[in-house]
Amino acid sequence: MNEISFAVLGTGGIGRRTLEVSQYRDGLIPVAVCDRGGIAVDHDGLDVGELLDATEGNVASGPDEVDDDQDTVTDGGVSTDAGGVKQTGEGAGVVASEQGRPTETPIDDIIAKSDRIDAVLIALPNLEHDFIPRVADRFAEAGYEGVLIDVLKRSRVIGLLDERAETLEDAGITFVCGAGATPGFLTGAAALAAQSFVEVDEVEIWWGVGLRSGYEDNRGTVREDIAHLDGYDIETARALSDEEIEAIVAEHGGVIEFNDMEHADDVLLERAGVCDVEDVTVGGVLDVRTDEKPTTTTVSVTGTTFDGERGTNTFRLDDDTSMAANVNGPALGYLKTGVRRNRAGEYGVFGPAELMPRF
Ligand SMILES: NC(=O)c1ccc[n+]([C@@H]2O[C@H](COP(=O)([O-])OP(=O)(O)OC[C@H]3O[C@@H](n4cnc5c(N)ncnc54)[C@H](O)[C@@H]3O)[C@@H](O)[C@H]2O)c1
């Protein structure tokens, strides 16, 4: 396969690791990145090492300058004080890199350069359900013809993307949705595990994530997970200040269990014909005190074979593989598959249970 130039929208906990993992994959050239305050573009390939060093512990999760008395709502939720973000350089995020420059229109600036970009990985927070679908609209309106891929989690967003399938198809865009770990890797594993059966009764996904770097370095992920707790939803989670999130994490002793999560594995498995939405359950445990997983990540698919046997096929991740590895390895694998499909003229919306990620 020829080289693939790609961009990353959002260089937080996930986006930074996407760039890092891409260094270990053949043929992937990171040419553009942005966060909420800056952009860096080099069509010959960005210096990822420099970019990662400059943004280490220095993610632009909130606006650059915030009046201490005034909460500012952003796509990543409410940030009360830019001082809450660890900073190691001049400015937070991409602008701290010598390759970066400040901008107030980061996504539009990437779109303006997108005719030379094969694939765009969207690692933005999705606290407004239509945020990522609206980003897709902007690429389509600008005449982008390439791959868009996201690692979003919520079931209802897939419907919003499906509504746009025709527009994306007409534009020549191949959109791979929900292509992180769960949904993503584990959804794909469930689709494979289901192949033994003629009837699938149940798919159970149970994840364990240990993130010693905690909320500070994984703001979108932790905030969006909190929206699944009793008493919270996406709107209330979006309105929480950083301090309130830290307090919720502390109330749980740093270990939070989630049950019956609205994870798009369900709709993605249904649209791939594996089972019905209601047959899928997703839950897990997040531990922000340690990098060790609090529980083993498993996907169990229970069904009946053609010859009448009932059984459960189980796919298990090693406890030593991190969330960063299990989100970004598959996301880049699905990105490569997306580019292959795009170059073959297949456009529209695809899920991880319909594709096999490539190396
Ligand atoms: N599918 C999976 O398995 C999986 C796993 C983990 C995280 N995720 C998802 O990945 C996403 C990112 O999570 P994270 O922890 O990296 O978040 P984060 O808060 O650490 O980073 C978000 C990044 O997006 C940037 N950003 C926010 N709004 C922007 C805007 N309007 N324009 C440009 N840039 C903007 C921020 O500056 C930051 O760089 C979340 O939606 C999370 O749910 C998915």
Automatic annotation (TrEMBL):
Enzyme class, spelled out: transferase
Gene: bioU
Source organism phylogeny: Archaea, Methanobacteriati, Methanobacteriota, Stenosarchaea group, Halobacteria
Superkingdom of the organism of origin: Archaea
Protein name in UniProt: (S)-8-amino-7-oxononanoate synthase BioU
InterPro entries, per database record: BioU-like, NAD(P)-bd_dom_sf
Keywords, ordered alphabetically: Aminotransferase, Biotin biosynthesis, NAD, NADP, Nucleotide-binding, Transferase
Binding-site residues, NAD(+): G10, T11, G12, G13, I14, G220, T221
Active site (UniProt): K153, E224, H228
GO biological process, one term: biotin biosynthetic process
Region (Disordered): 56-88
GO molecular function: NAD binding; NADP binding; transaminase activity
Its biological purpose: A 'suicide' enzyme that participates in biotin synthesis. Catalyzes the formation of (S)-8-amino-7-oxononanoate (DAN-carbamic acid) from (7R,8S)-8-amino-7-(carboxyamino)nonanoate (DAN), a function equivalent to the cannonical BioA reaction and the first half-reaction of BioD. The cellular requirement for biotin is thought be low enough that this single turnover enzyme supplies a sufficient amount of the cofactor.
